[in-house]
Amino acid sequence: SFTMNMYLFLYDLMQFCGHSWIFTNMIIRFMTFGKESLADTFHSIGFVMRLCQLLSVLEILHILIGIDKSRLLPRFLQITERIIVLFVVINSQEEVQGKYVVCVLFFLWNLLDVIRYTYNMLARVGIYYLPLTWLNFSLCIPLYPLSVLAKGFAICVSLPYFESFGTYSIKLPFPFTFSIYFPYVLKMYLLVLFAGMCFIIQNLISERTAHLGTGNIKNKRS
């Protein structure tokens, strides 16, 4: 138990450092270069962002083996949403990488993750701060739908490029009559994305109620 708890603490610490670096870098670049920095967001922080999101796949494994008590389906949906939008949509289309929506999306992701991993990291060692607990379980409720809207907008912006370049579209030669037109796949995924949003918001509200709604905040050492 102590070993697993220490492992989770180190994992949260790594994610906190990664997302804090991204978040700080974005703010400093914007304060220094203004709007010009927005179009270059992906090229400046994209590598660390991809690394952090790939590392987050471990959270699914943590739940499966029982060392994390979070619910599997909501976490799985949140992680796969990011993986699909980041690697399939944004990373594969250079024209999309310079859009302002990418900067907005990264800002929302990292704002939420800096708070979440800070809360998780401190909770591993039994430290609970009321303001941080409130932020962790409250801020995600309005910001998560905004991030879904940004994901949907990024997908819509990418559709013309997938149509023009034929990226990921497959057409098998004769005698097969099977083909996959990837823009149609993305349009169907938009429906899944917004349907999943309703389910995840319900889960976020139930988590907030469990931790805050009944005054059930643990008062530990500071």
Brief summary:
This protein is 77% helix and 2% strand. It is mostly helical. Strands 1-2 form a two-stranded antiparallel sheet.
Please characterize this protein's 3D structure.
It is a multi-pass membrane protein. One of its GO terms (cellular component) is endoplasmic reticulum membrane. It comes from Leucopsar rothschildi (Bali myna). One of its GO terms (molecular function) is very-long-chain (3R)-3-hydroxyacyl-CoA dehydratase activity. InterPro entries: Tyr_Pase-like_PTPLA. The protein has one domain. The chain is globular and about 60 Å long. The longest helix has 32 residues, at 2-33. The protein has helices at residues 2-33, 41-55, 58-65, 72-90, 94-97, 100-124, 130-138, 140-165, 182-213; strands at 170-171, 179-180. A two-stranded antiparallel sheet has the order 1-2. The model is unreliable at 218-222 (pLDDT under 50). It contains nine helices and two strands. By secondary structure, it is mostly helical.
Shape: globular
* Structural category: mainly alpha
Q: Alpha-carbon distance between the termini? A: 23 Å
Mean pLDDT: 91
Q: Can you tell me the residue ranges where pLDDT is under 50 for at least 5 consecutive residues?
A: 218-222
Number of helices: 9
Major sheet: 2 strands, antiparallel
